[in-house]
Design goal:
The strands form three sheets. Strands 1-2-3 form a three-stranded antiparallel beta sheet. The protein is globular, with a radius of gyration of 22 Å. 40% of the residues lie in helices and 12% in strands. It is an alpha+beta fold and 408 residues long. The protein has a single domain, classed as Cytochrome-c3 Hydrogenase, chain B (Orthogonal Bundle).
């Protein structure tokens, strides 16, 4: 049974979709999106900049805050401080030259870009990846999901002053990077999923070493549950903060844990199954209270579910069989005219690639749909109104954004 906090001692969530603030604050209806006349010369308001900071769970993104006292009355997001222009870079390169570019769009979870790009190319080129390759692809995506959640948990706790959680999750994340390194030869950008299949099979003894890593992650996650989720200070800060009204899910394009924490069970792995997910036993993890605390708990439980999925994959995947489909000479590869959209469920929500080809050796158009734009720009600018300055970092981290997805 999922851990449930006692919410009786914490402020009730706001019914209007805005962040909660203590009852002693001014609750004037004038403090709503787009209706406040801000005159900096009056001395009542102050302009502050938060970020860009790097490294950090939100990466190189800046928030332009207008505050009244210690309360935010307006917030605007600014990006463009890190990797930029991936889509246009890809449109000027051959299909195989795009392969090492896509993983830079999301550094903590690069494998999802590799899969979406490879699957889009395969669909337009009429290529079917082998079954064994699909199992390994699914394994890699769940390993990447675990890595992404571990980084998030450290950042979410750190935003509220719990630095020790980040040390623990970084330790076990490094163990998972060891598994990536022995599988692909790399720790960050793995470049293992490519059009046609995967580069190699599993090394000898990989299953045993992976099980040891999963057991250690479970042990640390048990400590994280006690020290973070059962911590009175963390609950005081996170419960009721950043409430997302379920009515905003569709209009704002909210997906992944923010949607599931609001009780909307959106998960592409179930809604539009791909790879070998139809053969795996799992159900989307959901919550009901739609605040920072619930989003963190949904991700914690989703991480544990990914551990179970990795075990299912290793137990059931074929041990023999081809890993790559037959593909043309990649230096002279021309793909017929067409268009496709490939989607999947990354750790932050729906991820998609729209690819258009014109029969040449270059993509005609590439468009990447990552969750960061809708979550950390449109939604964040709404949620931040009436938020206390001290809660801004925790609110932003709860939306789990990676800025290169925005200026891709």
């Amino acid at each position: 049974m999922a851990y449930q906090p006692d919410r009786s001692q914490y402020p009730a969530r706001r019914p209007d979709g805005l962040s909660r603030h203590p009852a002693s604050r001014d609750t004037s209806t004038a403090l709503c999106v787009g209706s406040l006349d801000i005159d900096l010369a009056s001395g009542k308001y102050l302009k502050l900049w938060q970020g860009p900071n790097h490294p950090g769970i939100t990466g190189n993104m800046s928030l332009e805050l207008t505050v009244c006292g210690d309360e935010v009355v307006e917030g605007k997001t600014h990006v463009g401080y890190l990797h930029r222009g991936f889509e246009k870079l890809m449109e000027r390169r051959t299909f195989i030259q795009c392969f090492p570019i896509v993983c830079r769009i999301c550094v903590p979870e690069p494998d999802f870009n590799e899969y979406c790009y490879a699957a889009a190319v395969e669909e337009l080129a009429g290529i079917q990846s082998p079954e064994r390759a699909d199992w390994i692809r699914t394994l890699i995506l769940e390993m990447g999901r675990i890595n992404s959640y571990l980084m998030y948990l450290g950042g979410q706790a750190g935003a509220f002053g719990l630095g020790v959680i980040g040390q623990w999750t970084t330790y076990v994340r490094d163990l998972m990077l060891d598994r990536f390194e022995e599988l692909s030869g790399a720790r960050i950008y793995h470049m293992f999923i490519l059009p046609g299949g995967v580069r190699d099979g599993l090394p000898d003894g990989f299953e045993q070493r992976m099980e040891e890593t999963l057991v250690e992650i479970e042990r640390v996650m048990s400590d994280v549950l006690d020290v973070m989720f059962r911590n009175a200070v963390f609950k005081k800060r996170a419960v009721g903060l950043g409430y997302i009204d379920p009515a905003l899910i569709e209009p704002y394009g909210v997906t992944g844990p923010p949607a599931r924490a609001a009780g909307v069970a959106k998960d592409v792995r179930k809604d539009q199954p791909y790879l070998v997910y139809p053969q795996l036993d799992f159900e989307p993890v959901t919550g009901a209270d739609s605040d920072v605390y619930t989003r963190a708990d949904v991700r914690r439980r989703d991480l544990l579910m990914s551990i179970d999925l990795v075990r299912q994959i290793l137990a059931r995947m074929p041990k023999e069989g081809p890993l790559m489909a037959k593909i043309p000479n990649v230096l002279h590869w021309k793909i017929p005219r067409g268009e496709t959209y490939i989607r999947g469920e990354c750790s932050r929500g729906e991820y998609g690639y729209y690819l258009v080809t014109d029969g040449s050796g270059y993509p005609r158009r590439v468009n990447v749909r990552g969750p960061s734009y809708t979550h950390a720009m449109a939604l964040m600018e709404r949620l931040i109104v009436n938020c206390n300055i001290a809660d801004v970092a925790g609110l932003l981290v709860s939306l789990h954004t990676y800025p290169p997805e925005i200026e891709r």
